[in-house]
Amino acid sequence: MKNTYTIIKSKQTITVNFDTKKPRLGYDSLDMSTLRTQHKYNSWDPGLKNTAVFESKICYIDGDKGLLTYRGYRIEDLVEHSNFMETTYILLHGHKPKTNELTDFTTKINLHQHRIPNDIITLLAHQSKQSDPTGILLSLMGAIASHMDTLNLKQTNPISSCLPIISIMPTLVANIIRHIQGKSWQSPHADLSFIDNFLYCLNGKKPSEDETFIMDKLCIVQAEHELNASTHNVRATTSTGANLGAALCAGIASLWGPAHGGANQACYDMLLKIGSIDQIPKYIAKAKNKKDPFRLMGFGHRIYRNTDPRAKIFQKMNLNFLKHKHDHDLFSLAIALKDTALSDPYFVDRKLYPNTDFFSGILFHTLGIPSSAFPTLFVMARTVGWCAHWLEMQENPNYPIIRPQQFYTGSKTQNFHTQTKDYKE
Ligand code: ACO
């Protein structure tokens, strides 16, 4: 279907026609691919808030309804009826595995867990214990990216090249946390699965059923979330022909920021800073004050404008699983903060609700993880989603490099020697 629009350019009226692209779900898109070549216009869209740049079959979010699906399966169903390994299979392959397919897949993942190259272990040992864990993970992933061939992590087909990297993430992340805590390297246990091995490497002992359950559900919920900042950057890096490790570095770097995956740490630290329920009004006022850089962390989302289903899942898990008084107190504070914000017109009018990071930090803490490492846990799970997007891009190797236009506001050309202008005002 053609859509006709009029643009007024130098008092002249120009008619432009855009085709409409219809997705399976979600808003139609205007195909603007001729806007620049035919009409010499760019579209202006700060933050790419209104721009679709990729076709994808992996994840769908309806922000008004609070709906999140992976390959068509609702997140609530995956959390209740699936586990992280099956969800990983679904995200990478696009369908639910048969029993033997899942067994085969899990065996491959478990096999690779032990294949951490020695130079990666050495590199970790040389990191400062004061370093930020996400920065360390970025360094290690950079090293992995630079040795994809020699470290034997490059495999014969696209899916199998993802498996070694997904497999080693629990061991890497757990050992980064051990490193900053001054503990020695812990190798994974041959009989343990992905999630249990993360907890085993972290604590040096087999986890309880509750710990496994919490970690498994946290990973399912954080595995994928369509074209957020980090996934977009993974895809943009992939579009340059860079290898998977390099693309994952782009993902880790952008997830690190407090407006994105670093919000779990920022939110937990904010709750600690608020400290008690009587301090909530002071912090709500700060969040509303446009001259104050403080934002309510774990609140607001580009897409969810009603409810974030992930926050609901984590709120329920907090209710069921928190053990220590400290975590209970922090959870009560979080609930009071949420209720105060949601009864304030500032947050209601702007449709700001708790997001995935509002409650996840308290769960991470109950597993004994320091808040500085929360984003690395997010990376561990999200590596699966990033790999799914990397795989989808391998299906279309001719996809154009991601290269947006700018809106230039700098100097016009001027003579370098005389500094005179080369143009008339
Ligand atoms: N606290 C106070 N005000 C907020 C918040 C917040 N957490 N979030 C948004 N707002 C305000 C903005 O200042 C803006 O106000 P204005 O209309 O008066 O200018 C309005 O709400 C709209 O916000 P935007 O900035 O347009 O929202 P955007 O979609 O660009 O950003 C984001 C979304 C980055 C998540 C933002 O809400 C935020 O910074 N939240 C806190 C950080 C956070 O929790 N990030 C995790 C997101 S989930 C994830 O990435 C895993």
Report what the structure shows:
- With 425 residues, the protein is mainly alpha-helical.
- It has 18 helices and six strands.
- Strand 1 and strand 2 form a beta hairpin.
- It is globular and about 75 Å long.
- The mean pLDDT is 92.
Number of strands: 6
Assembly level: single chain
Query: Which ligands accompany this protein?
Result: acetyl coenzyme *A
Task: Count every helix, treating DSSP H or I runs of 4 or more residues as helices.
Answer: 18
Average per-residue pLDDT, rounded, comes to 92
Low-confidence stretches: none
Question: Structural class, please?
Answer: mainly alpha
Strand neighbour order, sheet with most strands? 1-2-3
Coarse morphology:
globular
Radius of gyration, rounded?
24 Å
Strand-residue proportion: 5-15%
Largest sheet: 3 strands, antiparallel
Residues in helices, as a percent range? 40-55%
**CA(first)-CA(last) distance:** 43 Å
List the helices and strands in order: EEEHEEEHHHHHHHHHHHHHHHHH
Describe the secondary structure blueprint for this structure.
Elements: E1 2-9, E2 12-21, E3 29-31, H1 35-39, E4 59-62, E5 67-70, E6 73-74, H2 75-81, H3 84-93, H4 99-112, H5 118-125, H6 133-146, H7 158-180, H8 194-203, H9 209-222, H10 229-238, H11 244-255, H12 263-274, H13 280-288, H14 309-321, H15 325-342, H16 345-349, H17 356-366, H18 374-394
Antiparallel strand pairs: 1-2, 2-3, 4-5, 5-6
Helix pairs in contact: 3-18, 4-7, 6-7, 6-11, 7-8, 7-18, 9-14, 9-17, 9-18, 10-11, 10-18, 11-18, 12-17, 14-17, 15-17
Acetyl coenzyme *A binds next to helix 17.
